From TrEMBL:
Keywords: Membrane, Transmembrane, Transmembrane helix. It comes from Anaerococcus porci. This is ABC transporter permease. The chain crosses the membrane at residues 12-32, 52-73, 94-120, 126-150, 162-185, 220-238. It comes from the Bacteria.
Amino acid sequence: MRKYLKYDVKSNMKFFLSTFICFVILLVSLVSVRTIGSFTSLLEVGSAINSIEIILIGVFIMTMIYFVINTFYKDLYTDRSILTFSLPISAREFLTAKLLVINIFFYLLVFLSIFLFYLSGRFMNIWSLISIIFAMIILNVFSLLIFLFMQMDRFLFKRKNTVIIIILLIGLIFVGGFFLNRYFLFLSDGSLVRSGDNTLAFISAYVKVSGRKLLNITGFLYYILTALILSFFNIKILKNDLDLS
């Protein structure tokens, strides 16, 4: 798996570098605006900084979506699949390597984003870090859903049927998450306590209630379990349809 991981990282190096350049451009823009802001109190300067931050968030999300789709697509739909699946690597090792590369790229973007937000005067705290970990888990669920879609489309069903199945599966995951997390569990004085009604807890690492920030333990456990189940089915399909050994 180590050799394949190195191979996959090297094959994505151009994309990593182009993304880094894009963030450097945003960095230069942000520094320039802040420099102008240090000499003037114009309202437009603050608006420009906010606009750059919004662009940064948009670039982050779109880049991650593209990277996840592309990293699986090229190993299932292009000529590269012939080389990939001729390597002495198991289905589990293949999927693990893919998720590792995705998470490496995620944390690269997170690091660059934190640096940019730091320059704009926004600072991280422990709850921000917890939210990043929660987002990473959601990213892995999303990545596994993308891979499951591509595998079913490639090996099992017609695309129309695959789209319907994935839409139903996404609905099941997040509707289930909504109801399970409405009254999520959190730690209080070393004990697990059930929260009150919180409709947005299923997409939050924590919820602020009466000035207190409550860690959504239910949400973390639910999406970790979901990722493990999706991993199991992805590996099962890959084992049945491709000889990776």
